[in-house]
Amino acid sequence: MSEITLSPEPRPLGKSGLSVSPIAWGMWRFAGVSSAEGRALIEAAFDAGVTLFDTADIYGFDGSGGFGDAESLLGEVFAETPGLRDRMVLATKGGITPPVPYNSSTAYLTKALDDSLRRMKVDSVDLYQIHRPDILAHPQEVARALDDMVSSGKVRAVGVSNYTADQTRVLASFLSVPLASQQPEYSPLFLDPLTNGLIDQAMELDLAVLAWSPLGGGRIGTPGNPREQAVAHALDTFATRFGVSRAAATYSWIMAHPARIIPIVGTQNTARIAELADAFKVSWSRQDWYDVLVAARGERLP
């Protein structure tokens, strides 16, 4: 039986012309530490082979304060370590405006990008994504804002996050540049993108799929209900065989899909960041991969 093997080699970020690592590091909890501690986390990610770093203006926000804190901390790290920015593919997002909650008007997104660049102390980002769809913004207006970002030189590529397949298709129809990415929630505990057309569309349009919460919000690490425990058991059976952690097995399971899904790993622990490289030590038979899927679905395949 043929096996699915994973390569740590860079792959295209959709049609952007950018090449990125097969695993990304996310900064939604990158706040509240010193710049030296922040730099140590980034260096650990580099050591694990990561080149794609994902942040957002909302990261660091705790519900009442801290908006922009993750970007600001990253800006401090960049200021103290010249050249660090040039080693990474830097992605950020905008459009969540608590307590509104969303704003994707051209005027707002233009300001949001400028504010992000100022906080991070950079002239441009490699990827800018709309964080969540704004129902009150016409996709033509959103497209105009994204096109202007690219033409201004402040952004190299654009994408969306938490969009439906239809919302993605309609926005793409108004853009003069290709969408590069789609960022949905996806894990063995959240399989919707497999069945709602999102991943199929990504393969059709050559969009990079950036999967947030690949460990199911930590529930794969500390399973509670019977379904979560069944998924953990299926992953452990595989992980034990190859001598890797359950987390590394999960990342590899996600990456084994032919859409070449890129998990965004948010751990702020340097030892766990180092484990990212273990995801490439393993290979999946179809039986092994489907065993995890059956456990995740909680029922037999038809």
From TrEMBL:
Its cellular-component GO annotations read: cytosol
| Matching InterPro entries | AKR, AKR_Detox_Biosynth, Aldo/ket_reductase_CS, NAD(P)_OxRdtase_dom_sf, NADP_OxRdtase_dom
- Any one Pfam family here would be Aldo_ket_red
All residue ranges annotated as the NADP-dependent oxidoreductase domain in the record? 22-289
Superkingdom of origin organism = Bacteria
Q: What GO MF annotations does this protein's record show?
A: oxidoreductase activity
Q: Which PANTHER family does this one have?
A: NADH-SPECIFIC METHYLGLYOXAL REDUCTASE-RELATED, OXIDOREDUCTASE YDHF
Q: What is this protein called?
A: Predicted oxidoreductase
Q: Which organism is it from?
A: Sphingomonas palmae
